[in-house]
Specification:
There is one protein chain. 53% of the residues lie in helices and 8% in strands. By secondary structure, it is α+β, with helices and mostly antiparallel strands. It folds into two domains: 75 residues, Glutaredoxin, CATH 3.40.30.10; 116 residues, Glutathione S-transferase Yfyf (Class Pi), Chain A, domain 2. Strands 2-1-3-4 form a four-stranded mixed sheet, covered by helices on one side.
Length: 212
């Protein structure tokens, strides 16, 4: 059952550099929910704050709290944000469109995040010297993902139906990093419908606001 509450204050624990923290922040912006971002750096030399393990026993980001209710795992958080707060729905009503949304989110997590972000973006843009073999493998995996995603798209401008959904917002931070690598930009150009989607969504207010 969907409940809606006044858009009371929420807290996100994480870092602005994180793909998954940004996904949650985009969802909060889309719903118009005010929130505080408490900095948690998983790469800090001194390690995580002592009390953070209670929020996320696996020591990852983000963690989330609203009115005393705590959550971790990005998809659980974004679905809660959509269902707990007033504002535009971020999940399709149609059962098949909603299933497609969930499928695309799972595809992004399992088949896109690692090759697009870590194998291509991090290697090309943040690592010296870059592992060229890893980049090449990442690009092939990214191509497989983009081809599969392209095959799922309908005629509309969104990934999982006639309106923007959590699938679109889950994808944004991954694509934003991937396209910073020259190879990523070149590969996206091969998929016209996906490229058109990206050009349309990248200027959306929630996306621009949460960008680095």
């Amino acid at each position: 059952m969907k409940m809606t509450t006044a858009n009371t204050f929420a807290t996100v624990y994480g870092a602005t550099y994180s793909v998954y923290v940004r996904i949650v922040r985009i969802a909060l912006h889309e719903k118009g929910v005010p929130y505080d971002l408490v900095p948690i750096n998983v790469f800090a030399e001194q390690g995580l704050p002592a009390d953070y393990q209670a929020r996320h026993p696996f020591g990852r980001i983000p963690a989330f709290e609203h009115d005393g209710f705590r959550l971790y795992e990005t998809s659980a958080i974004t679905r809660y944000v959509d269902e707990a707060f007033s504002g535009p729905s971020l999940q399709p009503r149609d059962v098949r469109e909603r299933a497609r949304m969930n499928q695309i989110i799972a595809m992004l997590d399992n088949y896109a995040y690692r090759p697009m972000v870590w194998d291509v973006y991090v290697q090309r843009m943040e690592t010296e010297p870059a592992d060229e073999a890893l980049i090449a493998t990442g690009l092939e995996k990214a191509r497989t993902f983009l081809a599969a995603l392209s095959g799922l798209l309908g005629e509309g401008p969104w990934l999982a139906g006639s309106e923007p959904s959590l699938a679109d917002f889950h994808a944004v931070p991954m694509f934003a990093l991937f396209e910073q690598a020259p190879e990523g930009t070149a590969l996206l150009a091969e998929f016209a419908q996906i490229r058109a989607w990206w050009e349309g969504i990248r200027t959306r207010s929630s996306v621009a606001t949460t960008g680095a």
